[in-house]
């Protein structure tokens, strides 16, 4: 964490994220840039007797452009899976159209250019990763040589080379998610649909999955991502659409939608106290309101990943940081008066290092 960095934020009035108005941004993309286009797309699920049951999607107009990561967000039941099924041609629209690569979504041939990671991958539990990928390669009519090369590339990409010969029933949730992704990429698709790709992954797996998604975009792939993990969406998506009860409520670039208006943020390192005081004076002189001027905090994800990497680099080393709030308050028992849940003086201390306020990196093994 860069503790020598200072963030300044001032504000003249109440701060709300920009873009509260519905559907802030409309497409300006040219036809050839558009990979998915929905036009006035509606889907009504009907019951056995043909009576209307659920209006799952209402006049949806979105465009997903070549080479972008597009997030499709919304609460449970808002129509995300219905949209994906319509894009794949697994459902017919009630009205409107979906075009994928300029072809009607019901033309299943276009699916050869699409990779799909469903929310739950149903893979054969008694095959290992290599056999699984080889099987899906055969479905795409890949030759033996092509399959061998592609399986090798994908196992490396998703970090499963070491587990390639283990049956999938022995895999952890995170490993299953990775083999699911590898399976979705077997045909080297141009468009990748990812439904909750980070489900079941630990923070390291989540970071790797996000890096992988960004790397795929850098290779020129187009990615449509559905996720309830809004932090992950914010980290990787270029644009998002937010659905609610089948209706499009917001559409735009993530950076534009999240920008807080009328607030200025300045990050500087190496500022002296004198310089900070001058900044305070300047803000006051201009009649602005200083909201905060402090060291920024890192994210919990960064903290967690740093600890894990440090532990891997130095097995057995302990890292215990004492913050002011960990330290006993003046009215708490002194060190020579053990509290009820602390060991008496003649009992062995369970964790001496934790109490001594050792700083990061102290070796207590
Ligand atoms: N086969 C179906 N028959 C009837 N109604 C359905 C069917 N599939 C989905 N629905 C309904 O359509 C609406 C949209 O469902 P959908 O699965 O598209 O939402 P979602 O946004 O993907 O939800 P989640 O976040 O829970 O996956 C919901 O009210 C759902 O109950």
UniProtKB/TrEMBL annotation:
<feature type="domain" description="ABC transporter">
    <location>
        <begin position="36"/>
        <end position="270"/>
    </location>
</feature>
<dbReference type="GO" id="GO:0005524">
    <property type="term" value="F:ATP binding"/>
</dbReference>
<feature type="compositionally biased region" description="Low complexity">
    <location>
        <begin position="1"/>
        <end position="10"/>
    </location>
</feature>
<dbReference type="InterPro" id="IPR017871">
    <property type="entry name" value="ABC_transporter-like_CS"/>
</dbReference>
<dbReference type="InterPro" id="IPR027417">
    <property type="entry name" value="P-loop_NTPase"/>
</dbReference>
<dbReference type="InterPro" id="IPR003439">
    <property type="entry name" value="ABC_transporter-like_ATP-bd"/>
</dbReference>
<keyword id="KW-0813">Transport</keyword>
<dbReference type="GO" id="GO:0016787">
    <property type="term" value="F:hydrolase activity"/>
</dbReference>
<dbReference type="InterPro" id="IPR003593">
    <property type="entry name" value="AAA+_ATPase"/>
</dbReference>
<keyword id="KW-0067">ATP-binding</keyword>
<keyword id="KW-0547">Nucleotide-binding</keyword>
<feature type="region of interest" description="Disordered">
    <location>
        <begin position="1"/>
        <end position="24"/>
    </location>
</feature>
<dbReference type="Pfam" id="PF00005">
    <property type="entry name" value="ABC_tran"/>
</dbReference>
<dbReference type="InterPro" id="IPR051782">
    <property type="entry name" value="ABC_Transporter_VariousFunc"/>
</dbReference>
<feature type="region of interest" description="Disordered">
    <location>
        <begin position="314"/>
        <end position="365"/>
    </location>
</feature>
<keyword id="KW-0378">Hydrolase</keyword>
<feature type="compositionally biased region" description="Acidic residues">
    <location>
        <begin position="328"/>
        <end position="349"/>
    </location>
</feature>
<protein>
    <submittedName>
        <fullName>ABC transporter ATP-binding protein YxlF</fullName>
        <ecNumber>3.6.3.-</ecNumber>
    </submittedName>
</protein>
